[in-house]
User: Which sequence fits this backbone?
């Protein structure tokens, strides 16, 4: 299983590897990532084309709702 964010989808799409990703792995992402891809697909550039191509294949992706309650904790050290 791979959890993929917007940047990863776009980067893999720019080198034409989204199909491989979706064919070879069980891919999971969040509803927020899908919304970001939908926003990006409205532009007129290569990244917009990639975003739309990912959205066209989203039936191969497990999409999760991510709760917003509580604080987000991370491992960043300042």
Assistant:
């Amino acid at each position: 299983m791979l959890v993929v964010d917007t940047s990863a989808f776009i980067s893999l799409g720019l080198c034409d590897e989204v199909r491989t990703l979706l064919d070879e792995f069980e891919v999971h992402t969040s509803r927020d990532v899908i919304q970001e891809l939908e926003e990006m697909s409205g532009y007129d550039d290569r990244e917009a084309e990639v975003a739309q191509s990912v959205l066209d294949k989203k039936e191969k992706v497990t999409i999760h709702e991510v709760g917003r309650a509580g604080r987000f904790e991370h491992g960043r050290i300042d």
